Amino acid sequence: MTIINLRDFYPYYTADSFIEVPDEVAEAMAAFDRMEAAYRLRTYRHKAYYSLDREDGIEHSALFVSLSPCEIYERKITMQELHAAISSLPDKQAKRIYAHFVLGMSKTDIAKAEGVAKSRISESIQRGLRSMEKYLKNSF
């Protein structure tokens, strides 16, 4: 049996946490750690972090930093609050905000699709954002 420090293997551990594991598990974890370090060195040497979307996963693994459980929870709560704020809006405002900010449609495209003037869409989105701001301030 080998004693390992979980802080060496898991980045979200902030304090030392020692546990006893079988020798095979300790060797497997050490081997994985060595392979991961070698992979990071290869991506650095070959400048793989500058790849332009080759679809082979190098760019993702070089740039993606895993989130801690606290960050994941904060994002979940934030998204729930945002959805609640959007659902508190009138239907037209909610649809227009969703189309503009989530779907990425321009205000001109939304106006053409609804058959109204662009100024109406802009005013509606601004009023909706102000209403969402008030709702979110009151919820805190």
3D architecture notes:
The protein has 140 residues and is mainly alpha-helical. It folds into two domains: 2-63, no CATH class; 69-139, Arc Repressor Mutant, subunit A, CATH 1.10.10. It is built from seven helices and two strands, in the order E-H-E-H-H-H-H-H-H. It has helices at 6-9, 23-45, 58-63, 69-87, 91-102, 107-114, 118-139, and strands spanning 2-5, 18-21. Strands 1-2 form a two-stranded antiparallel sheet. Helix 4 crosses helix 7. It is elongated, with a radius of gyration of 24 Å. The model has no long low-confidence stretch (mean pLDDT 85).
Helix and strand topology:
Layout: E1 2-5, H1 6-9, E2 18-21, H2 23-45, H3 58-63, H4 69-87, H5 91-102, H6 107-114, H7 118-139
In brief, what are we looking at here?
The chain is mainly alpha-helical. The chain has helices spanning about 5-10, 25-45, 60-65, 70-85, 90-100, 105-115, 120-140; strands at about 1-5, 20.
Order of helices and strands: EHEHHHHHH
User: What is the residue-averaged pLDDT?
Assistant: 85
| Sequence of strands across the biggest β-sheet | 1-2
CATH topology of the largest domain: Arc Repressor Mutant, subunit A
Task: Tell me the CATH architecture of the largest domain.
Answer: Orthogonal Bundle
Count up the domains: 2
Helix content: 55-70%
Tally of alpha and pi helices: 7
Number of strands: 2
Which regions are unreliable across 5 or more consecutive residues at pLDDT < 50?
A: none
CATH superfamily of the largest domain: Winged helix-like DNA-binding domain superfamily/Winged helix DNA-binding domain
Share of residues in strands: 5-15%
> For the record, what CATH class of the largest domain applies?
Mainly Alpha
Q: Report on the biggest sheet.
A: 2 strands, antiparallel
